[in-house]
């Protein structure tokens, strides 16, 4: 191959490795300021159309659904937020949003929740 073809392929590979799969950090923070506890799932979908369903569970008095919003941005150094691809410098993470009977009741990082959420939900339903 000619050197110019190799250089073009290397640049394309570098650029494709730097692209993220989530919302960029500034846009994510702007939208997150509009999130309110009690908002409907429909309003949330309008705000975050890229949200991904993570799971759901039905209880005797209602159901809980979990949606995740991925975010991604470039960082020169590790920030401690989410996971960082050391090769491309892309910082990736996600935040989970919990809906009870179609209304937002809590949100945060995936590992922020107690180990036994079923017991908490059952106590709250009494």
Provide the CATH top-level class: Alpha Beta
Helix percent band: 25-40%
Global mean pLDDT: 74
> Over the alpha carbons, how many angstroms does the gyration radius reach?
19 Å
List the helices and strands in order: HHHEEEEEH
Give the CA-based shape. Answer: elongated
Q: What's the number of domains?
A: 1
If helices are DSSP runs of H or I spanning 4 or more residues, what is the number of helices?
4
CATH architecture: 2-Layer Sandwich
Largest sheet: 5 strands, antiparallel
Contiguous uncertain segments of 5+ residues? 5-20
Strand content: 25-35%
CATH topology: Beta-lactamase Inhibitory Protein, Chain:B, domain 1
**What is the β-strand count?**
5
- Structural class, judged by helices and strands? alpha+beta
- End-to-end Cα distance, whole Å, is 72 Å
How would you describe this structure in keywords?
single chain, 126 residues, alpha+beta, Beta-lactamase Inhibitory Protein, Chain:B, domain 1, 5-stranded antiparallel beta sheet, 4 helices, 5 strands, 32% helix, 32% strand
